[in-house]
Amino acid sequence: MDHPGRPPVTLEHVARAAGVSRATASRALTGSGPSAAGTRERVQAVAEQLGYVADPVARALVSGRGTRVVVAVTGMTADVLDDAYLARVVTTTARVSGAEGLGVALQWLPLDRPWPTLEQLSRDRTVAGAVLVNTTAAVLAGLPRSLRGRAVSIGASSPDVPAFDVDNGHGVRVAVSHLVRSGRRRIAMITGPAWLSCPEAGEASYAATVRAAGLPVRMVPGDFTVAAGRAGVHEVLRRWPDTDAVYAVCDDTALGALAVLQELGRQVPGDVAVAGFDDVPAAASSGPGLTTATHPVEQIAAAAAHAVLHRPDRGGGVTRFPSELVVRASA
Amino acid sequence: MDHPGRPPVTLEHVARAAGVSRATASRALTGSGPSAAGTRERVQAVAEQLGYVADPVARALVSGRGTRVVVAVTGMTADVLDDAYLARVVTTTARVSGAEGLGVALQWLPLDRPWPTLEQLSRDRTVAGAVLVNTTAAVLAGLPRSLRGRAVSIGASSPDVPAFDVDNGHGVRVAVSHLVRSGRRRIAMITGPAWLSCPEAGEASYAATVRAAGLPVRMVPGDFTVAAGRAGVHEVLRRWPDTDAVYAVCDDTALGALAVLQELGRQVPGDVAVAGFDDVPAAASSGPGLTTATHPVEQIAAAAAHAVLHRPDRGGGVTRFPSELVVRASA
DNA sequence: CTGAAAGCGCTAACAC
DNA sequence: GTGTTAGCGCTTTCAG
Fold first, then answer.
1. How many interchain CB pairs under 8 A, A with B?
2. Shortest Cα distance from A36 to chain B (angstroms)?
3. Is the CB of B88 less than 8 angstroms away from the CB of A87?
4. Which chain D positions have some atom within 7 A of a protein CB?
5. N or C, which terminus of chain A has less Cβ within 10 Å?
6. B85–chain A nearest CA distance, Å
7. In the beta sheet, which residues pair with residue A103?
8. Do A137 and A286 fall within a single domain?
């Protein structure tokens, strides 16, 4: 019933068994530096057979590559770390980097004063790379030099830093088009906070879609929370009482709006349709069922983590992941 | 706008500045081994002033203490890693171990074949310790020797492994008592899966509370999912049509039950009261608002992570964290 | 293309 | 109580 911890096999063992030096074995295994095809194959075979796995700790010590991927989240307060969306990013990052012997760390980046923290991260020898979440253009532009090439962004993009995000431009267009197609003519949107650049595409997309249909643009600011949805829908109804659809930047906000509408006795979707974005679990189980669009967080986070680890260093550019409309009863 | 990565200060620098050897500096800083009070203070002052932080990588290499805390989750399939509750545990573990320069890893432990994975973990030099989630008595009893003393459990306990859990015995008692006090007389419970020992206290508590009030015990098995709540409430109504309250092992299950009851046209709480456990976000925002009891996951996970890192090695024993009743409209 | 040698930053024996 | 001496497992010059 017990499982003794047999001493692990080291590079020395592999080298000896393959009849080469440690240096040669290292080169053959890592692929860095020259090595004869025959030797390489032999060493790899021996390593495989012995079940050799390079010790990430030793490797990190000598190469300075670090032992953990930091998920750094920009926000006003450290409370941004308590977030269901972020938790999925962290979990996925853990799965991806775990496969390479690396761990994950979580760091809050103060919105108004990110530099001290960033500098500290860049100096921290344990940091293998960083996944920037909800970050700003300023942070991306002023990234410490030593973090360049091993930092990626989820959301905002820049010329230097590769970014990964849901294609919410498309997601929003499809959702708002759905509202238009189903006969809605006065569609308001509750947006995200102004400082965040990632939902910009969504807001632009809403405005464009609505305008293209000859309908009025009605936007009210929010901050991704349920409370913002509650407050937002009140403001919408105050400013434009004839609104017949509310589109929210995310499901949490949409659910807040939905709750208020029901409290006010408005029929959903009879009087007012509601749609959101993200397809969180609660969207499916809440009252009428919330119409929304999917947000492939795990795919995005996995791609981001991969990019950090295998730093292809191919500069900036956004990789977008598709979002799909999920029609439920609310719209 | 740029932040150069000044070379980090090493133990060598501190030692030199304090006029001692590296070994002495190390002893003074770590507190292991003898060191004169005066020397210790001086070294610590210098270290502080220089902003010295021991490199966890080097430390791990030589001491074999590892660089990451593994959160190991028992379950039938790897799907258990996709779970909101677990995500909170991971996030919290990341915050706690992050402060010490360590990362977090996530590992699935197959319910029916945990040993190969456990053995591998015990051999992995990067593993500083393990937080076992949803684990079984068998795993705890057969833990590889080298993992002892640096593994803790969230949930199940054993004589050897310290455990941390919510006091759900008390939480359930309070919730079920609330149902009894508000006039419910035929209270059914939808439980968790049989192999999991952690909700046992809750089930026993339900049975005891209900019996003490002279009421019948009505239990139906589930598995923590929304689907289990849907199926469970159907079975409850089939077997005991006069049931006037459903208590579920967790909020997800309670929400499933609630949805079915509403679909069937039963008034909640008029005809049937519903209560759950966990106080998930959806409990507050769902339809009538779900009565439940809090589950201080972050506190529990933080305590568990601390215990792993500072391995006091003080054997088994459970530390329980209080749960509080949250009364909403559903009961 | 390969081997020998030199460390990465730190801790742990062992002498003094 | 303190300094000296060895490494931990790996990568990486530098000669051959």
1. 178
2. 31
3. yes
4. 1-13
5. N
6. 10
7. A68
8. no
CATH code, domain carrying A133: 3.40.50.2300
Query: Both B285 and B201 in a single domain?
Result: yes
Distance D9 C1' – A57 CA (angstroms):
8
State the total domains in chain B.
3
A154, A211 Cβ separation under 8 angstroms: no
Q: Is residue A32 part of a domain?
A: yes
Contact B171, B293 (CB under 8 A): yes
> Cβ(A325)–Cβ(A178) under 8 Å?
yes
- State whether B157 and B303 are in the same domain: yes
The answer to whether B55 contacts A125, with C-beta atoms less than 8 Å apart, is yes
φ, ψ of residue A163 to 5 degrees: the values are -125, 155
Substitution target from B61, B88, B91, B118 for chain A, most A beta carbons within 10 A: B91
Cβ density class A283-293: b for 16+ within 10 Å, e for less: bebbbeebbbb
CA-based nearest residue in chain A for residue B95: A106
Closest listed residue to residue A255, CA positions, set A226, A295, A284: A226
- Greatest mean pLDDT among A32-46, A58-72, A303-317, B229-243 lies in B229-243
B160 and B303 fall within a common domain? yes
**Residues B116 and B218 grouped into a single domain:** no
Asked whether the beta carbons of residue B67 and residue A103 sit closer than 8 angstroms, the reply is yes
The number of residues making up chain B comes to 331
Q: B109 or B126: which carries more pLDDT confidence?
A: B109
C-alpha span between B288 and B330 (Å, rounded): 6
Instruction: Please identify which residue in the block is written with the tokens 């079940």.
Output: A51
Query: Is A328 domain-assigned?
Result: no
End-to-end Cα, chain A, rounded Å? 57
Say if CB A23 and CB A39 are below 8 A apart: no
Residue B3 lies in a domain: no
| Alpha-carbon gap: B213 to the closest alpha carbon of chain A (Å) | 34
Three-state DSSP state, B240: coil
Residues of the domain holding A21: 11-54
Q: Do A2 and B102 touch (CB under 8 A)?
A: no
Q: Report pLDDT digits (tens) over B256-311.
A: 999 999 889 999 999 999 999 999 988 887 777 999 999 999 999 999 999 998 87
Nucleotide nearest to B38 (CA to C1'): D1
Same domain, B35 and B130: no
B contacts of A55 (beta carbons < 8 Å)? 61, 125-126
Give the length of chain A: 331
Asked whether the beta carbons of residue B82 and residue A105 sit closer than 8 angstroms, the reply is no
* Residue A330 forms part of a structural domain: no
**Are B173 and B160 found together in one domain?**
no
Confidence of residue A310 (pLDDT cuts 50, 70, 90): confident
Tell me the pLDDT tens digit for each residue of B127-164.
999 999 999 999 999 999 888 889 999 998 899 899 99
Residues of B in contact with A3 (CB under 8 A): 115, 118-119, 122, 142, 144-145
Burial class (CB in 10 A: 0-12, 13-18, 19+), B200: middle
